[in-house]
Amino acid sequence: MKVCRYSPAAGAVRVGLSPDNHTLIDLTPAGITRLDALLESENPLARARELAAQDLPRVALEGVTLLPPVEDQEVWAAGVTYLRSKKARMEESEFSASAYDRVYDADRPEIFFKSLAAKVVTSGDSVGIRADAKWSVPEPELALVINSRGRVVGCGVGNDMSSRDIEGENLLYLPQAKVYDRACGLGPWISLEADEATARTWQIAIEIRRGGAAVFSGETSVNQLKRSFDELAGYLFRSQRFPHGAVLFTGTGIVPPDSFTLQADDEVEIAISGIGRLVNRVVVV
Ligand code: DO4
Ligand code: MG
Questions:
Q1: What percent of the chain has pLDDT over 70?
Q2: What is the pLDDT of residues 165-174, one digit of tens each?
Q3: How many angstroms separate the Cα of 10 from the Cα of each of 33, 63, 65?
Q4: pLDDT of residue 19
Q5: How many A from CA of 110 to the centre of ligand 2?
Q6: Measured in angstroms, how far is the CA atom of residue 33 from the centroid of ligand 1?
Q7: How remote is the C-alpha of 102 from its chain's centroid?
Q8: Which residue's alpha carbon is at the smallest distance from atom 7 of ligand 1?
Q9: Which atom of ligand 1 approaches the CA of 249 most closely?
Q10: Distance CA 20, CA 183 (A)
Q11: Which end of the chain, N or C, is less surrounded by CB atoms within 10 Å?
Q12: What atom in ligand 1 is closest to the CA of residue 86?
């Protein structure tokens, strides 16, 4: 069962359930006008199933605009959680290689702030590459949707856009490599089938197109993720409250070759088998 935020017309924001790939069940008549009304409920998946069985209006998916699936949640990201990411980063920076090596094996994961909700972009919007970066890549990542009680209640498709040359020059530049306009892609769907065993059967795939032709594609499995969902969510919520819940990207397991950098007008498509697709054009910001 998937949920989204959408707009049927300019200005209006609604929450919808997707029973299939063509229609949305409008939850407004059931009194649900915000995602958190569902995500904060005792059992969001059971509540969504109950709502889907009610006689609520259905709208055609093609007639609406899908919105980023966040309201007030901060977005955070874990890093160096896949062997592929550790290796690529150790190669990218001699200077910081031991930091990546150590954090991969340490008890405490790397977790960094990624985005305010208002800055998140979703499918159909543009993602950004920095004008002062020379080496920019998308990072396709499973995103955990966590409620205010620290419970993982959903999963989404995330893109942790990154400037590899800036991160590689000095690890202290990480916030500049990771946080800038249009650097955080997410959505448009949240799958409420969030149990880890199911999610670990999913594949994450990316295709980057230039002038319509694929210039990079890659695939990995969520099962390659080194740390458990509860471990990552638990560290995020240590000594920090999130009254509106949070979204936590779980790190990338796909890294394009070092010769590859994104360019303006490229199209990035990320698919996670149990959730859906996030498709964005690239702009320079
Ligand atoms: O350590 C830098 C960032 C790591 C990251 O974003 C990832 O592994 O996905
Ligand atoms: Mg990342």
A1: 100
A2: 999 999 999 9
A3: 16, 12, 9
A4: 85
A5: 10
A6: 34
A7: 25
A8: 79
A9: 9
A10: 30
A11: C
A12: 8
